[in-house]
Write a structure and sequence with these properties.
The protein has four domains: about 5-90, Uridine Diphospho-n-acetylenolpyruvylglucosamine Reductase, domain 2; about 100-215, Uridine Diphospho-n-acetylenolpyruvylglucosamine Reductase, domain 3 (2-Layer Sandwich), CATH 3.30.465.10; about 220-335, Alpha-Beta Plaits (2-Layer Sandwich); about 340-425, 2-Layer Sandwich (Alpha-Beta Plaits). The chain has helices at about 5-15, 20-30, 50-60, 115-125, 140-150, 155-160, 160-165, 195, 230-245, 255-265, 295-305, 320-330, 330-340, 355-370, 400-415, 430-440, 440-455; strands spanning about 20, 40-45, 65-70, 90, 100, 105-110, 165-170, 175-180, 205-215, 220-230, 250-255, 280-290, 315, 345-350, 370-380, 385-390. A seven-stranded antiparallel β-sheet has the order 13-10-12-11-15-16-14, with helices on both faces. The chain has a five-stranded antiparallel β-sheet with strand order 5-6-9-7-8. The protein is an alpha+beta fold. Bound molecules: D-malate (MLT) and zinc ion.
């Protein structure tokens, strides 16, 4: 690195947007879960794509590696620098313009640092909906969501970020700005290169903007929380609704009594708004497109609850009740965090295999790992569960060997059912060992070749995804 590297960087982005002091760097150097403790060379905060390009050029010239970062809400350390004090964090949070909101073509072109919440609000202000919804949407950014192919609670109905991304703009390893912000639903012109950057976790380039599909919002929604006895009943009722009424279910979220206990203990939810406690809870949301459908659907739900042998169900009767029900679900991660360092697993299996996966995990987990509890929750409607191990007592650390054994146990169970060891959180720095163990060797080899072709000097996010 040449002695004037930092000076040139400051000239490119403005002195105030190059942070090098310890206190300024800390929020960018550590992940939100407080699990990783990185140490960067500095943090740059460009405000325009040209500044990102100049930053990349300077880094390439000086062999400085780059860690792109959005809202820093990732689960796998993909946006956290290593401890070498040699990597530069490029934070995109100052690039937050809405370049265009095209209500005729139902899409919006926005910069990477716009938060998901701001994108949702902008779409809603124009009578449309940006459907991607995750618990961290207040801080999580469009660029981060694209780069990790984020999922969340609406994938069942609207797909994940890959399904919602029509085009991207990215800065490549030599500083070229590649703009592919086309608003096209059909574009068969060879390899669909943007797909490499979606879910690429910043290892192939820096996503600086994206064109996102918007949907028409339903006229209203029916949101309910039900206490249920079996996971199978949650799946069969979903299939039943989808079979009879089509794709109207927006969310089908499951959580266990362990989640409910954590919420009670750590987030003040002494009681859920139900009459009793249950082994499992189902939070569902159904989109309604005709005014007046609420009453018909309220009846249908009661009937469905009967078939699920559920006699404890509550419907949201107002927007604030709906928000309260969602807050329960969205606080589960926070409730876990308050318990101490959890060992998170974000797995998926074909939806039909969900009951089998849960049975396999529950049958032997607590006899093998007596100091931990297993907290199962997630997006059951699309086959994605979070199977997280948490310490029984607040603040107790799960040792590294136990953590590794737990992870192997959970991932083996999912993979044995033709599942994936990472459904929506990505790989980051935390799941590279699993990549080596579970990813098919030909796929790994192709990924390495792609990485070498697009980033021959290896300046983008080394140590993430591939090692
Ligand atoms: C969620 O669905 O709330 C998060 O993706 C899961 C987690 O915190 O493990
Ligand atoms: Zn999730």
């Amino acid at each position: 690195m040449s002695p004037d590297f930092l000076e040139n960087l400051a000239a490119a982005v403005g002195q105030a947007n190059l942070l090098t002091s310890h206190d300024d760097r800390v929020p960018f150097d550590t992940d939100w879960r407080g699990v990783l403790d990185g140490r960067s060379l500095g943090v740059v905060r460009p405000s325009r794509v040209e500044e990102v390009a100049e930053t990349v050029r300077l880094c390439a010239k000086n062999s400085v590696t780059i860690v792109p970062q959005g809202g820093n809400t990732g689960m796998c350390g993909g946006a956290t620098p290593d401890g070498s004090a040699q990597q530069l964090v490029v934070s995109l949070t100052r690039m937050r313009a809405i370049r265009e909101l095209d209500i005729t073509s139902n899409c919006m072109t926005v910069e990477a640092g716009l938060s998901l919440f701001e994108a949702q609000e902008a779409a809603a202000g124009n009578g449309l909906m940006m459907p991607l919804s995750i618990a961290s949407e207040g801080s999580a950014t469009i660029g981060g969501a694209v780069s990790t192919n984020a999922g969340g609670v609406n994938v069942l109905r609207y797909g994940n970020m890959r399904d919602l991304t029509l085009g991207i703009e990215a800065v490549l390893a030599d500083g070229t700005i590649w703009s592919d912000l086309k608003k096209l639903h059909k574009n068969n012109t060879g390899y669909d290169l943007k797909q490499l950057f979606i879910g690429g976790e910043g290892t192939l380039g820096i996503v600086t903007a994206a064109c996102i599909k918007l949907h028409h919002p339903p006229s209203s929604r029916l949101t309910f929380l039900a206490g249920i006895k079996s996971v199978q009943s949650a799946l069969s009722s979903l299939k039943d609704i989808q079979g009879r009424f089509g794709k109207i279910v927006e969310s089908w979220e499951l959580f266990s009594d362990v989640s409910a206990n954590l919420l009670a203990r750590n987030c003040g939810y002494e009681r859920l708004p139900l009459q009793a406690t249950h082994p499992w809870y189902l939070l569902g949301e159904i989109a309604l497109y005709d005014d007046g459908d609420e009453d018909i659907w309220a009846e249908r739900l009661v009937e469905m609850a009967g078939r699920m042998q559920c006699d404890d169900i509550v419907l949201a009767m107002s927007q604030s009740q709906r928000e309260n029900l969602w807050a329960i679900r969205e606080n589960i991660s926070e409730a876990e965090r308050a318990q101490g360092k959890s060992i998170k697993h974000d797995v998926s299996v074909p939806t039909g295999a969900i009951p089998d996966l849960i049975a396999r995990v529950l049958n032997s987990f607590e006899t093998r790992f007596t100091d931990c509890q297993i907290n199962i929750f997630g997006h059951v409607g699309d086959g994605n569960l979070h199977i997280n191990a948490i310490p029984r007592e607040i603040g107790v650390q799960i040792g590294a060997d136990t953590a590794a054994a737990i992870s192997e146990f959970v991932y083996d169970a999912a993979v044995a059912l033709d599942g994936s060891f990472s459904a929506e959180h990505g790989i980051g720095s935390m799941k590279t060992a699993q990549m080596a163990k579970y990813k098919e060797p030909p796929a790994l080899e192709l990924m390495r070749q792609i990485k070498a072709a697009l980033d021959p000097m290896g300046i983008f996010n080394p140590g993430k995804v591939l090692t």
